[in-house]
Amino acid sequence: METTLAETPRKRQVVFLVILLFLWEAGSEAVRYSMPEETESGSFVGNLAKDLGLRVGELATRGARIHYRGNKQPLQLDIKTGDLLLYEKLDREVLCGATDPCILQFQLLLEKPVQFFQADLQLTDINDHSPEFLDREMLLKIPENVQPGTVFPLKTAQDLDIGSNTVQNYSISPNPHFHVVTHNFGDGRKYPELVLDKALDREEQPELSLTLTALDGGAPPRSGTTALRIEVLDINDNAPEFLQSLYEAQVLENSPLNSLVVTVSARDSDAGTYGNVTYTLFQGNEVTQPFEIDEITGDIRLKRALDFEATQYYNMQIAATDGGGLSGKCSVAIRVLDVNDNAPELTLSKVASSTPENSPETVVAVFSVSDPDSGDNGRMVCSIQDDIPFLLKPTFKNFYTLVTERPLDRESRAEYNVTITVTDMGTPRLKTQHNITLLVSDVNDNAPAFTQTAYTLFLRENNSPALHIGSVSATDRDAGANAQLTYSLLPPRDPRLPLASLVSINADNGHLFALRALDFEALQAFEFRVGATDRGSPALSSQALVRVQVLDANDNAPFVLYPLQNGSAPCTELVPRAAEPGYLVSKVVAVDADSGQNAWLSFQLLKATEPGLFGVWAHNGEVRTARLLSERDAAKHRLLVLVKDNGEPALSASVTLHVLLVDGFSQPYLPLPEAAADPAQADPLTVYLVIALASVSSLFLFSVLAFIAVRLCRRSRAAWVGGCSVPEGHLPGHLVDVTGTGTLSQSYQYEVCLTGGSGNEFKFLKPIIPNLPPQGAIKETEGNTTFQSNFGFN
């Protein structure tokens, strides 16, 4: 991107004339002050605020400052009072040289908002320099036959002052032969000429010594003197004559020393020494003359470097003198041509070290450019790189502002190196570059972002409190406090979830902790939300979902549902002796509160009264007969079944089954002693049943009493189960399990136990409803004699 002061239309070029459009910001005209040179520092110049129509307090609030081209600051501004004061003594001759008037231009810069005011300070000259002659003595050779009224040119005195304070008059010490006449150059300077009043006589006085005095017009006036020695020569009647009365020449300011500028030439018609001409350079416009002349050839050469920006023109007088003392004169005008030997200068008035992001049209820097060259050599173009979001805008004369072109994004780029290039239009082109490093300050424009939208954490139950279960993490693209995050638990969507007592989060790093031991059986999983909030203003936040999955541990032993083991009278399973192998005696039903393989149950027969008679299926807990029953098998059996889960380590429970072998389900049996321990707690229904059976069957019982007694004696060697003796007898045929597998609906019709104690007790479990199979099923069962070999038992 580029802004130019040239007239050629280019992108981002600004013609100098366009800058005049901004002068309305600085007021309608410049404020001018005047002050004598060499005034003491701190002297009052004027009240700038009052002269510009500004309030005194406005200077301080708007960041007023004085801008002056160059490194020195000749003035200072008291922003509290608006007074403009001298910063140091000012020497008009140093600052302006021979230029008149001597005007120092400066600008008042207001930063908030940016506004410029033009002001000038004119330094008036005081008479602080005396006239000085370059030579301490001037020698004139005058023939004795020169007629009165003849004029002889004299060298001028130099006075650095200007106006009336420079040389105004020349005088010579009193003598009878000469007087001095003071003349004016076209530019107002004075030069002296010696006029002969009375003819000279070499024989009477061959030499005169006079004093030439230069007097300026100051108050009081200052003067300077030089000695004037006049030699009276013999007669020479032809004076030298120049071919031209005015010689004009041009010289480049970068011409090398001793280079030829111009050659003057004069002729003398006399012969001998009176015809030999010597050239003398009489006067110039500077104390130190940059030119010299060859007194023989008349070549004018450069003896000191020229500077177009300091002096553009030189005027001098050349005198040609012959050997007889006669002389002629001519003028030489030399014009210094400008070359592009000065690079543009850039002066920063304001520069910001940082600028906030997301702020368009922000002023970053204010600067001015200048080039002391002239013409195209002094026209300048300002530009910056094309790949940065900044613009150069002209504001006032040669002032520019560097502003942001669009909102900046610190997260994309946090630092910019802006190179301001000022190039002139001369040949060759010279340029000046200035680098500005600009930092983009952060604005909280990015919300925190979690690394995952949802987190799943696994926690085994029975954990220790304050256990670290996982972490959540979020990042923020901002910087500083805007990127410092605070983690928190958000209120659960389910108000019944006691989240505050379950987990906690570390606000600094997002670590999650379980506050108490969890129970898989009570809570298998729960969800909650976590938030991440930065510390910007305003603060920004985001959320993530966390799901905690509680893993099961084998912390629950199997629980037996059937048969119940609650300390009451044990339940005895009735098995007919005619049961086939694989007959279902009972089924152990157990559950495990755990899940998965921790709840996989297996069954095992640990202990039996008669091993090999019964078996337990490992997977379903069914207790079945392993072989055919015989008369020699004991009537009562006690089975200890182990129920074990598949956890690690495995947990187990045991249950005891009581099995009673009967010939028929109608035959009463003696209950176990522990079942009859408390007759007072017997079921009233049992009492009623005993009474009813006793009244109905009394005759039958007495008739078979003897037969039962014999049978009991013969089976005295049989095993006792629970301390009960089991009477032997055949059950009615219609109650025999003819299916070969046995069912609970037939074998649990009723239980009859005869005790040796207080009497008989009958316990009805279910209504006595026979469940007889069809006749075909009976025949089919009789043929199944190999049932036992078809099952596997434990």
Automatic annotation (TrEMBL):
The keyword Translocase does not apply. It holds the Pfam family Cadherin. Keywords: Calcium, Cell adhesion, Glycoprotein, Membrane, Repeat, Signal, Transmembrane, Transmembrane helix. It is a single-pass membrane protein. Residues 1-30 form the signal peptide. PROSITE patterns: CADHERIN_1 (PS00232), CADHERIN_2 (PS50268). Residues 134-242, 243-346, 347-450, 451-560, 575-670 form the Cadherin domain. Its main location: membrane. InterPro entries: Cadherin-like_dom, Cadherin-like_sf, Cadherin_C, Cadherin_CS, Cadherin_N, Protocadherin/Cadherin-CA. The keyword Repeat applies. This is Protocadherin beta 5. It comes from Myotis myotis (Greater mouse-eared bat).
